[in-house]
């Protein structure tokens, strides 16, 4: 798995590439935890180039989302497709994680929530 980081409108965007599973989910956890430690509480995770994600990857995203909520932050996920979308649906993760069609929509949602707060 490769991890690419960018900042768009002061929001960290973490784009993953490759499979996310038990063997590398810790890398994802570590990068999300590092964002939280540096007080970056709004994060977008782009799964456009993720063909497979097991329950450890999904668990990592859900755990990060709950950590961010403690700081009134948010985690948005975008570009979920194929088998990853099926796993999200089968496990009911769509009701826990906010999933957006693309990166721009996820960023707009964060900015809109800022304006409400």
TrEMBL record:
One of its GO terms (molecular function) is anti-sigma factor antagonist activity. Gene3D superfamilies: STAS domain (3.30.750.24). InterPro entries: Anti-sigma_ant (IPR003658), STAS_dom (IPR002645), STAS_dom_sf (IPR036513). PROSITE patterns: STAS (PS50801). Pfam families: STAS. Residues 1-110 form the STAS domain. Belongs to the anti-sigma-factor antagonist family. This is Anti-sigma factor antagonist.
């Amino acid at each position: 798995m490769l991890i690419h980081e960018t900042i768009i409108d002061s929001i960290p965007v973490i784009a993953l590439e490759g499979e996310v599973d038990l063997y590398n989910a810790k890398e994802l956890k570590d990068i999300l935890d590092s964002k939280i430690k540096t007080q970056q509480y709004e994060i977008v995770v782009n799964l456009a180039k993720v063909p497979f994600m097991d329950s450890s990857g999904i668990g990592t995203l859900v755990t990060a989302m709950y950590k961010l909520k403690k700081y009134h932050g948010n985690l948005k996920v975008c570009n979920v497709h194929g088998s990853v979308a099926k796993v999200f649906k089968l496990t009911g993760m769509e009701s826990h994680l906010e999933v957006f069609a693309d990166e721009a929509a996820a960023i707009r949602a964060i900015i809109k929530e800022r304006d409400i707060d």
